[in-house]
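Hello again,

I reread your note about wanting to compare the complex against the isolated chains. To keep things tidy I'm splitting this into two emails, and this first one only covers the full assembly. Below are the input lines as submitted, including protein chains and any nucleic acid or small-molecule components. They are followed by the predicted structure of everything together. The single-chain runs will come separately.
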Amino acid sequence: NAGVTQTPKFQVLKTGQSMTLQCAQDMNHEYMSWYRQDPGMGLRLIHYSVGAGITDQGEVPNGYNVSRSTTEDFPLRLLSAAPSQTSVYFCASTSLQGFHETQYFGPGTRLLVL
Amino acid sequence: DAKTTQPTSMDCAEGRAANLPCNHSTISGNEYVYWYRQIHSQGPQYIIHGLKNNETNEMASLIITEDRKSSTLILPHATLRDTAVYYCIVARGVNSGGSNYKLTFGKGTLLTVNP
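Full-complex prediction:
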């Protein structure tokens, strides 16, 4: 049971480039989320999904797209990278076992946009 | 979801109990108190949660006041590896019509455990 995995761990992009941050979970969780964390700040929600085929916007969705074709995978796409998207990105999935609803986070992807 | 207030930072000596406070005076009846922590450069990690009763697990204890307006996370014997940012979050569970799969993380409390 690997939990939540994210790739790549580090990435450097040039302004205008596009890329996809991968996130996968093997716990059969219905709910998955993407957050970004900037220095000295808490996590901010980008997009989330309540199940395969269903996604919605969070607090800071601009510049990002998501899709959820399977329960396991929830990729985050940067359409045209900007320096303001330099951040650490965390993917999470949520367990809904009874009332024990907790989020499991991946190790993060550190992105630098030049 | 109700907002929370936490001290910016706290220090604790290794081996001693760390008591992290959190105020959530606007909490509603079906909102849970969740605690997560984030060790430097890692993803947040769930610690514990509770509704109104005190809770204990292998990581920590959670004490919630009777009026539920505040709570305290207790790490009974802090170690150097407990140095982290601790987040107190109030949210309704999905089974209660809430959306705790999209939590609001504030700035938390930086706990530094000193040797």
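For quick reference: The mean pLDDT of chain A is 92.

B.
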